Structure formats: structure tokens, C-alpha cells
Amino acid sequence: MMTIDERTIEALLEKPYWIVDVFPMQVPADSPGQFFAVEEYFLREPRIGEIRQKYLRLLLKWNCYDDLYVSADCAETWTKNPDPALLEEWVLRKGCLPGGTVHVLAWEGRTMAVLQAEDLSMTVYNPSEECLGLLRRLAEAEGLFVWMPEMNNSIEN
Questions:
Q1: Domain extents in the chain
Q2: Which of 44, 78, 122, 150 has its CA 20 to 30 A from that of 91?
């Protein structure tokens, strides 16, 4: 059994990260478009539920390739390879509550994905090249995109 503690989580949060998103790339801060209005639109039902379904399917497929340790209670308790119905409950129900967060550890604890209720995206910390390749394929199958934020380019491994 893998040991999951606060230090593990904190160390992963310091690593380079990628975004799995409904947008194909980072929207520039000075974009002439209406990003915030569009974001608000997507964050309302039924659209956010449809987006959460995409993340659920991505996680379920990911779990076919690797053990996933999942926490839906602020990383207090972890479930190895949760039953698909339980993962659905966490991603679609708890994950949609204000402040709800789902943490996922993979690749023997070397990679962490974080899905927060108030976001349209999922953040993936420290994926290996192999993991990143898999995530890109899984995201593409769900109509999602994987990209690295500009400010993240300077973070060292």
C-alpha cells in the first residue's frame, strides 16, 4: 500500500503542471474576447454537468491503465481504485458542491490530478512523458485539451 501524507501532496503541488481543459490553450489575460462571461456560462447547469461527465470518463479510462488513489475529502482519506459508481458520485456530486475537490494520485504517487468544483479544468501535477501521452489521448477522446500554462514553463523538475 502506498503511503499518502501531507508532505507527498505538498511536494507534488510544487512540481510542473499541465491543464486538462475545455479550452485548447491558455486564454491570454489581455484577450479581447469575453472569457469570464463564457466561463460563467459553462459553470452553470446543465453545461457543468456535461463537462464533469467528460472528466469522469477520462478518470475511469485512466484507471484501466494505472492504479488511482482518489480522495474526495480534502485528501484526508484515500480509496484505491474506487468503484466506478463511487467515483461518479465524487466527481459529479461532491465535485460540484462549492469548494468540493477531488484529488487523484497515480503512477505510484508521482502524479496528482486535482479537480475543483469552481473550475472548468483539471490540473495534473508532475506527469511523466508516458502519463502525459496517455492523458492527451484520453482528453482528446472526450473533447478536452491538455496544455502547459505559460507561467509554468519556468518551473524546474
A1: 16-26+35-145
A2: 150
